[in-house]
Amino acid sequence: MTTAAILLVGGMGTRLQPITNKSPKPMLPVGGVPFTEHQILKAKAAGISEIVLATSYLAEVFKPYFGDGSAFGIKIKYAVEEVALGTGGAIQNAASLLSPADQVVIFNGDVLSAHDLAAQIKFHKEMQADVTLYLTQVADARAYGCVELLPGDRVKSFLEKSETPPSNLINAGCYVFNRSIIDEIPVGRVVSIERESFPQLLAADKKVFGFVDSSYWLDIGTPAALIKASKDLITGKVFSAATPSHDGDSIISKDAKVADRCTISDGSFIHPKVVVESECEISGSIIGEGAVIGAGCKVIDSFIAPNCKIPAGTVVINNYLGF
Question: Check: CATH 3.40.190.10 for 3-223?
């Protein structure tokens, strides 16, 4: 039984504006590489050999970086939505480019997780499911799609963003679909997989299961979460094959220039052509390519835009500058 994948990377990333004004969220640097690279290598590690990137906003920036996927050991294709079609419409649009497959893994383009994708695919097959949702538990489920399970892990209900969630299990943004189920999604119109398709599947008594995994999970949709994801990858709190190999708890690019008496720590990533002048403290931060950090600066848990110049003595904490 063959498995392919679709990666949903078409959103505008409005919660991350203005950081996403010139770059789509999935192409922002997280752990030293575009975020999408982490998900592509996760798919490859689970035995997937073909993935379609479902693009829309700034669609043209993906292919120059990822190409046909040969550099990453996986075949990559690109579907472009000229008009936003919602999650379900995007899946249907992208699926038209897939080679024949029995199952299709769907990734949300803004979730970093350590969940066992190969185990989720195996569970899907063993349960002879139509759809299997990756679920995780959170303290407050109101901001997420909430899922109730029956004994045996079959989904009882799916409620998208409710003020009174009946469960703390949430839709964690990775699904396994039988290809025949995708073929039932209406073509050429806006379809929400969460608000329309999942409730319809349950009403039709389709075999929808939940795969519960309590390992690391993070929605990177806000500036603070994006910075945390990058820090967690570099410090090793969560593993990704895409994170550049490094010693210590931070990464400094080879052609960055860091002056004497500087401290770079706690999962920071210093991109190429950065200049860090003397006596700076940089902790848990992303410093974009070509940025200049003036002498005596303190940059903590922040994101400095490429080519941004930070004046000497500036203190930046939990912020983003230059976008």
Answer: no
